Amino acid sequence: MHNKTIAELAKGLADGDFSSVELTRHFLGRIDALDSQYNSFITVTPEQALAQAKAADETRASGHAKALTGVPMAHKDIFCTNGVLTTCASKMLANFVAPYDATVVSNFNHAGMVSLGKTNMDEFAMGSSNENSYFGAVKNPWDLKAVPGGSSGGSAAAVAARLAPGATGTDTGGSIRQPAAFCGITGLKPTYGRVSRWGMVAYASSLDQGGPMARTAEDCALMLNEMAGFDPKDSTSLKKSVPDYTEGLDQPLSGLRIGLPKEYFGKELSAEMSDAIMASVKEFEKLGATIQEISLPNTMLAIPSYYIIAPAEASSNLSRFDGVRYGYRCENPENLEDLYKRSRGEGFGKEVQRRILVGTYALSEGYYDAYYRKAQRIRRLIQQDFLNAFNEVDLIMGPTTPTPAFDLGSNSDDPVQMYMEDIYTLAVNLAGLPGISVPAGQINGRPVGLQILAGHFKESQLLNAAHQFQKATNWHQLAPSSGE
Amino acid sequence: MALERSDVEKVAHLARLKIEDNDIPEYTRNLSSILELVNQMQSVDIEGTDPLAHPLDATQRLRHDEVTESNQREHFQQNAPATEAGLFLVPKVIE
Q: Which of B18, B52, B92 sits opposite A379 (nearest CB)?
């Protein structure tokens, strides 16, 4: 059962091949048996999952089942889940039981989906390797010596290892697409404002966006149907109707114009990676698309702009963790200032502290114009590059990452080197565009991801292209042997 | 741009973050290299380019001034480290 996609599981449930309780037991059994080698879950919620599964079976028996009723999934531990531990992989929130559901979580509950538990991640979503978790690093199911990527590394590893058919992720600078690439699954970052951020612990509010992670583009479309939509509780949510994302999946790609940014194929990209991506691009050509070179001249500026905007917003967002109302509090504080300082110093991990320090510096008196304001202006240049390109082409393609998954422990001493890993993904968040990563090859047994980008609110077009690619290739069907 | 130890101490105080003495040299190095990276921005000519705050240039919506939430103080305070009579407890502020 675990090798079936969400679409296949939904059909099996509808046809009465198995019940949601059987399905849920099966996945809980796999988590129990296999997750000790991956560490992809922080919290597993068997009782709640089985109660939801039983309710889903009853809904189906009464003839009220919806598209995904009874299909199990997992939530990144950044989404608030009522009555369930919501840690954000931080000591700061290690004891935090969310008193309400995030909009995304209640959307999936409303759809009748079953939540298996909460997946591991980089602390407060800050990282590209999932090594910055208070609950320990996650291992890549394809190679246990490799990182799964981050920050949604637990979700990616759980889906790749068939411990969950789908999972939620969040993407601030690549945190859905990069782990999806490293773990050989499909991950979609929607347009900024498409999916509600309410109840999703905030990292960088002008960049954060939740999205689906699953094995196929079709499954991502099914999940996005439930996730997306205007939410009055999120002040940056956009009032725009939600199409049925599965509707356009089977459109032919003839006449589709694909742009390859020359800046994405520079010397930092290995020949093997470049070959894998170009072979995938050829598949699109066979499907009737035309390929042309384009230029995104400000690509390299995405890194400095992002590494001001994200830490600045993080330093402001994370000021709420003060040891007073919820979260970690230090022992025996001498006075209020000592309570704040030690609770935060002891509660936050190193990468989070680094980003708070950078952000605080960038926003401090005398530096605001030179850093934050300047970064926001460069952000517009970067967005303009994309908008210009989308006058000439429908989709932009390139590698999701410069290399396949790197080894655990290989990068963590040097934050700047780690930040460079995000070169292809960061600019997409700065511009607020939707992007998807699809499995597109393997190098030495480690998956390669192809990133596809489209204009604002063109998720349907991305999913259509990804689905057609997956009908022509089988990279997304490969399963890691560690999950057998 | 190389930061001094005192810069890091000052920023840590502004952020109300207690950092360990033996971590300060590493943070000073890390922050200096991050600032060196972001200083690539300084040579870019952005005259006449407006800052971009929301990727779709949306403005903040205002809602009607109506009560929408019910009082759930006890429920929310279950996560608090210390409370008394519905109040959050902190160390004595006024002598």
A: B52
pLDDT digit string, tens, across residues A13-26: 999 999 999 999 99
Residue range of the domain that includes B26: 5-41
- Count contacts between A and B (CB, < 8 Å): 178
Three-state DSSP class for residue A417? helix
For chain A, domain boundaries = 6-255+394-483
To the nearest whole angstrom, how far is the Cα of B25 from the nearest Cα of chain A? 12
Put simply, the answer to whether A364 touches B53 (Cβ < 8 Å) is no
Catalytic member of A19, A90, A151, A280: A151
| The two three-digit tokens of residue A192, written as one number | 């900024």
Q: To the nearest whole number, what is the mean pLDDT of chain B?
A: 91
Within a domain: B66: no
CB A377 to CB B72 under 8 A? no
**What percentage of residues in chain A have a pLDDT greater than 70?**
100
Contact criterion met (CB below 8 Å) for A174 and A419: no
CB < 8 Å from A in window 10-49 of B: 11-12, 14-20, 23, 27, 30-31, 33-35, 37-42, 44, 46, 49
CATH class belonging to A6-255+394-483: alpha beta
- Express each pLDDT in B49-89 by its tens digit: 999 998 888 888 888 999 988 999 999 999 999 999 999 99
Nearest-neighbour CA in chain A from B5: distance (Å): 13
Show the tokens assigned to A187.
């991950």
**A280 counts as catalytic:** no
Strand arrangement, sheet containing A209-214: A41-44, A114-119, A72-76, A166-171, A209-214, A186-189, A435-443, A446-453, A395-399, A257-261, A290-294
Packed helices A271-286 and A459-472: angle between N→C axes, nearest 10 degrees: 100
Phi, psi of A16 (to 5 degrees): 75, 20
Residue whose pair of structure tokens reads 């002598």 in the numeric block = B95
- CB spacing of A432 vs B55 below 8 angstroms: yes
Q: Taking CB atoms and an 8 Å limit, are A416 and B60 in contact across chains?
A: no
* ipTM of predicted complex: 0.95
DSSP helix, strand, coil percent of chain B (3-state; round to 5): 40, 5, 55
CATH number for the domain harbouring residue B19 = 1.10.20
Residues 6 or more apart whose Cβ sits within 8 Å of residue A413: none
Assess contact for A241 and A184: CB atoms under 8 A: no
Q: Is residue B9 part of a domain?
A: yes
How far apart are the CA of A348 and the nearest CA of chain B, in angstroms? 9
Indicate the number of domains in chain B: 1
- Closest-CA distance, A205 to chain B, in angstroms, reads 9
B 64-93 residues with CB < 8 A to A: 72, 75-82, 88, 90-93
Provide the strand spans (E) within A77-216.
114-119, 166-171, 186-189, 209-214
Lowest mean pLDDT among A107-116, A220-229, B13-22, B52-61: B52-61
